[in-house]
Design brief:
The chain is mainly alpha-helical and 165 residues long. The chain has one domain. The protein is 68% helix and 6% strand. Strands 1-2 form a two-stranded parallel ribbon. Helix 2 packs antiparallel against helix 3. The C terminus is likely disordered.
Length: 165
């Protein structure tokens, strides 16, 4: 039986597709943060203005303005939570896409190299030791990056739960 392994985190972290999309997500997060800070500053200014001019209002006007400001604050929290959920969802989708591409590439790679099994080495995982002679990390990383650079990224493949054992 021919077996090899890869340091999964190394392959993923050095996969150009992952790097590019991670940078895009980081930029999106920065845009979200800037927008959120701007909205928060606007609300703070509105509160400060109310604190300065609230004495000129009737009790009912003050109460209405306080309720309006509390609603705006709640809306800001909701908006922030929605942005965080969106980013979290984007990150999960990216990792899922990367794992699907990696799985597809590994299937091709194993067939091309005549391997019966490719194991994943992750800290705390099931693989505690393997000789460097069967470490495929560098070759797999180079290969999947070459495929990505050529514009033919591996198509997502569903995990085959009926694989022969």
């Amino acid at each position: 039986m021919k077996v090899g392994f890869v340091y999964t985190d190394s392959v993923i972290n050095n996969y150009e597709f992952f790097k590019k999309r991670s940078e895009e997500l980081t930029e999106k997060g920065k845009r979200f943060d800037t927008d959120l800070q701007s909205r928060a500053r606007g609300l703070e200014q509105e509160v400060a203005t109310f604190q300065q001019t609230g004495g000129n209002m009737t009790v009912n006007q003050q109460r209405a303005k306080q309720e309006e400001l509390m609603q705006k604050e709640q809306n800001l929290y909701t908006y922030r939570n929605n942005l965080m959920q969106e980013l979290s969802g984007d990150e999960a989708a990216l990792l899922n896409e990367v794992y699907e591409q990696l799985q597809s590439y590994m299937n091709e790679y194993a067939k091309e190299k005549g391997l019966d099994m490719i194991l994943s080495y992750t800290r705390g995982g099931a693989l505690w030791y393997a000789t460097e002679a069967i470490d495929l990390t560098k070759e797999v990383t180079e290969g999947i990056n070459k495929k990505y650079a050529s514009g033919t990224t591996a198509a997502p493949v569903a995990a085959d739960s009926t694989a022969k054992k």
